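Quick one, probably user error.
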């Protein structure tokens, strides 16, 4: 049994990245170049989405970006939301923007995503950006998987030839992450999902186990190989009256029992969450620089 493990400290690495971005913003300012400007569309008043958007606004302020927040009632029509997207697509002041998900059920995420201009798609959700993961010249990388790969890179984790097991095949996380690990990391990747037979048999083989399904505590100690690296991408709000906001964030990994078996592991919170925001800022800076 491993006696000590090291934390993959997303909060610290994200702070380093934000400081690097803030310095680039200062340089742009003194060179008379445009300051990056992020647009954020938020529909409805879902508590988790509002908290995430607040975090994105705070991050913009911290690095010196301009931002515009577009808030709409839950009842907004798809047509009206689409028109707002067209307007931002055409707005030269805004370098990149995101539509915070989830959207209400009467609005199609696919159709809305298709309307976002790919060179302003700083979440990396559009087909063009998603597809470019396998290109020699990637465009804007999907933000959450980009954050995962960047965190591992900054801890000098060598992915080449390693067996990465990704649990979750979602379009936002698991699918693009698997492609990045293969294309950029030269890893061997297994993708598991809710139909996978005998999940534990797969996860136990992982040199690096990456989990993003939103099922608190899914991964238990007997599902993890001794010495593995574990990346927990799950963030589920669970009621907790002892906490100031009345809830706590839970990952997909049972941290207390799994961590002692690991060489490296991300915490929740303080792991991939802050890295996702840092990636969004990096993408916004990239989108701005490409317009210089
Ligand atoms: N909802 C949960 N995660 C994300 C994200 O990374 N981007 C957007 N736009 N919405 C989300």
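Nope, works fine. Designed sequence:
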């Amino acid at each position: 049994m491993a006696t000590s493990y090291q934390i993959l400290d997303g909060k610290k690495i994200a702070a380093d990245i934000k400081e690097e971005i803030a310095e680039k913003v200062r340089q742009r300012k003194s060179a008379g170049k445009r300051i990056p400007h992020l647009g954020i569309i938020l529909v409805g008043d879902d508590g988790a989405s509002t908290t995430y958007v607040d975090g994105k606004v705070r991050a913009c302020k911290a690095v010196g970006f301009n931002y515009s927040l577009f808030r709409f009632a839950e009842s907004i029509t798809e047509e009206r939301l689409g028109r707002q997207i067209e307007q931002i697509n055409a707005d030269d002041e805004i370098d990149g923007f995101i539509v915070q998900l989830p959207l209400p059920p009467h609005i199609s995420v696919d159709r809305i995503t298709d309307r976002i201009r790919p060179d302003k798609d700083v979440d990396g959700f559009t087909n063009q950006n998603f597809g470019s993961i396998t290109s020699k010249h990637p465009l804007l990388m999907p933000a959450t998987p980009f954050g995962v790969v960047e965190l591992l890179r900054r801890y000098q984790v060598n992915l080449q030839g390693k067996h990465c097991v990704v649990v979750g095949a979602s379009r936002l996380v698991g699918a693009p992450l698997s492609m990045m690990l293969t294309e950029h990391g030269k890893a061997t990747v297994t993708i598991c999902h809710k139909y996978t037979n005998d999940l534990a048999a797969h996860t136990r083989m992982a040199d690096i186990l990456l989990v993003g399904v939103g099922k608190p505590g899914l991964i238990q100690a007997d599902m993890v190989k001794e010495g593995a690296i574990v990346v927990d991408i799950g963030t589920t709000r669970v009621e907790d009256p002892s906490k100031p906001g009345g809830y706590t964030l839970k990952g997909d990994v049972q941290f207390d029992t799994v961590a002692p078996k690991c060489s490296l592991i991300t915490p929740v919170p303080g792991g991939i969450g802050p890295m996702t925001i840092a990636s969004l800022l990096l993408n916004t800076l990239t989108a701005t620089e490409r317009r210089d």
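The chain has two domains: 32-117, 143-273.
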